[in-house]
């Protein structure tokens, strides 16, 4: 073969190699695709999603389905082919990575943030529904997340209501930070908490992390309710946008008659404890999930 033919063949091989490499190299993008829907008036693993103790319940034969979106995880990869597919698809979306995840955020931090959002959305949904029914709910500071491997792991639990830490009465999240950071190195602290209606005290010894004392909890706003209402949802589902559907399902479960009139209804939206519905993220993909 001539030098020209050899050069052409070599160029074709190189171009093919470059194309293959480019097609599978990760790009700084995140895809949104339609997720599953969950009937929050129904059951999960044989148990009602909306669980109530201390109040009569009224079950509805209709469905209230929360919608979800699958988002590329922070440690996931989007290739050129996947990015092009999402960009061209009427059912998917493509976003710059930095517009979805803060710079330097780890997968563990992302999962913890999502779990915290789910806990707060559930508590706000219960508060909104009960307030609409005329009940009084008392704002408190509770544990929203416990980090694995930290001193509080195995001692404090999510939704423990923080009443006192050492000599500090807890009325706001900053009280928790102040009580922990003012402790001496290696000094155990007594955490007085309300857990499932009972007051208990546990000892936790803060450890120094990045120059400050920590126990590994995320404190935030919670509530004391006049009776027990909980939402039993798959823990792999995170984020705040199911709050509206949780609130409607709780309201329906606590009142006679059918809010759905026996129909299947899908919905989404955050909700505050006062009942204000927030904007919707990933609406395009949620519409597809609802349609399917």
Description:
This protein has 292 residues and is α+β, with helices and mostly antiparallel strands. Helices cover 31% and strands 29% of the residues. The protein has seven helices and 16 strands. The protein has helices at residues 3-24, 80-88, 97-100, 107-132, 173-181, 243-253, 283-291; strands spanning 29-39, 43-44, 47-48, 50-53, 63-71, 93-96, 138-146, 161-165, 168-169, 189-195, 198-204, 207-209, 212-214, 217-224, 228-231, 264-267. The strands form six sheets. Strands 6-1-5-16 form a four-stranded mixed beta sheet. A four-stranded antiparallel beta sheet has the order 9-8-10-11, covered by helices on one side. The mean pLDDT is 89.
Rg is 24 Å
Q: Care to count the β-strands?
A: 16
Major sheet details: 4 strands, mixed
Structural class: alpha+beta
Question: Helical segment tally?
Answer: 7
Low-confidence stretches: none
Average pLDDT level: 89
Helix content: 25-40%
Tell me the strand order in the biggest sheet. 6-1-5-16
Strand content: 25-35%
Q: Could you give the order of the helices and strands?
A: HEEEEEHEHHEEEHEEEEEEHEH
Outline, from the CA principal axes?
A: flat
Taking the alpha carbons of the first and last residues, their distance comes to 58 Å
Q: Short description, anyone?
A:
The chain is an alpha+beta fold. 31% of the residues lie in helices and 29% in strands.
Task: Name its key features.
7 helices, four-stranded mixed sheet, single chain, 292 residues, alpha+beta, 16 strands
């Amino acid at each position: 073969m001539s030098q020209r033919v050899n050069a052409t063949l070599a160029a074709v091989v190189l171009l093919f190699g470059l194309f293959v490499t480019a097609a599978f190299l990760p790009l700084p993008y995140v895809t949104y695709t339609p997720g599953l829907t969950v009937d929050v008036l129904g059951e999960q693993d044989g148990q009602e999603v909306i669980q109530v103790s201390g109040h009569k319940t009224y079950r509805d034969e209709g469905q209230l389905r929360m919608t979800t979106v699958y988002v590329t995880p922070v440690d996931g990869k989007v290739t050129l082919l996947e990015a092009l597919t999402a960009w061209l698809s009427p059912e998917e979306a493509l976003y710059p990575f930095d517009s979805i995840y803060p710079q330097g955020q780890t997968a563990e931090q992302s999962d913890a943030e999502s779990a915290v959002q789910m806990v707060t959305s559930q508590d706000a949904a219960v508060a909104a529904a009960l307030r609409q029914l005329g009940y009084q709910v008392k704002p408190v500071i509770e544990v929203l997340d416990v980090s694995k491997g930290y001193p509080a792991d195995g001692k404090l639990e999510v939704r423990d209501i923080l009443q006192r830490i050492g000599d500090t009465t807890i009325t706001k999240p900053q009280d928790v930070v102040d009580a922990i950071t003012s402790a001496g190195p290696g000094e155990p602290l007594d955490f007085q908490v309300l857990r499932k209606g009972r007051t208990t005290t546990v000892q936790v010894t803060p450890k120094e992390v990045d120059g400050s004392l920590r126990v590994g909890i995320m404190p935030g706003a919670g509530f004391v309710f006049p009776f027990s209402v909980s939402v039993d949802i798959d823990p792999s589902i995170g984020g705040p946008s199911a709050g509206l559907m949780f609130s409607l399902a709780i309201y329906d479960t606590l009142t006679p008659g059918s809010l759905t009139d026996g129909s299947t209804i899908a919905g989404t939206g955050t909700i505050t404890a006062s009942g204000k519905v927030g904007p919707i993220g990933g609406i395009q993909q949620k519409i597809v999930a609802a349609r399917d």
